[in-house]
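Researcher: I need the complex structure. Ligand is tryptophanyl-5'AMP. Inputs:
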Amino acid sequence: MARILTGIQSSGRPHLGNILGAIIPAIELSKNPKNESFFFIADLHSLTTLKSGTERAEFVRAIAATWLAFGFDHNKNVFWRQSRIQEHAELAWYLNCFTPFPMLANATSFKEKSEKLADVNAGLFTYPVLQAADILLYDANIIPVGKDQKQHLEMTKDIASRFNQLAGKEILVLPEPKIDERIMTIPGIDGQKMSKSYHNYIDIFLLESDLKKVTKKILSDSKGLEEPKDPDNDITFKMYSLLATDDEIAAMRSKYVAGGYGYGHAKQALYEYILEKFAEPRRIFNYYMENTAELESILTSGESKARAIAQHTISKVRDVLGFSS
Ligand code: TYM
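Model: Output:
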């Protein structure tokens, strides 16, 4: 039996990158009866960039509704908000003291964020340690994530090994990332990595008219309608390829190469594809966003199972550190 664990930050509504990079692969793994899945909302992490409590609460609901919209079985698996289990923060503190400063200073995501953000706070710096705590608290084996999280997973293993070395035995279980080679990094509408902080994302749950506006904004070159186009260097084609079947991709490729097919046509095709492919998740998402009491009760029901496991791990850690006697 493998324990699967992953988290999504509540710093915005989930976008296509989160859905294809983490949510769908994680739900696929959770359907294997041999696996046990732990999916949580990283609301403590979101505090590094988002200070508004009202917005955070709204984004927590949107993330929970997205997991349910894509078929996560909350009865079979465990689903909770990170902030409700205090052991995440407690273990993060202990692990901070096992994390070399240069490891954090050299983290790619910290360097990227600190160049872009005005508020470069200490939470942003120690973000990977809290992430390590999230994973290690639950003895998780497999972590389905996008490629951008690879370094954080390496740091998690490194921190856990340092702790285990002190303990003289394997108290913390070393996890493995699971990164879908086909998906890797989903591009945003400007061709950079799709990200909440770059404002280049596609929110598949938008109203139809707003979704259409966003797809129209996808960057393309200036080739005219009649000219043949290079599908391999076009963002709309890349996005379409991530969603469509092999035959549909081949048909779209022929249209690009033949000419007489404009980027506007391709963007319209992508927009229609998103609406059709995600019709059912859009319906379920809207249902939960309107029935928030039901959503809240689902989220709360997973807490006691998560807490029991977290408390078991933290008591072993406290023993090693001399905090229990
Ligand atoms: P977040 O919310 O930034 O991203 C959530 C998940 O979505 C993936 N992702 C992408 N995948 C492909 N292409 C993209 N453009 C793209 N953008 C985002 C991310 O790789 C991630 O898997 N630090 C985590 C949250 C977290 C976590 C954890 C994850 C906190 N604790 C413990 C796993 C285990 C994050 O970046 O969230």
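Model: Summary of the prediction. The CA atoms of residues 187 and 193 lie 5 Å apart.
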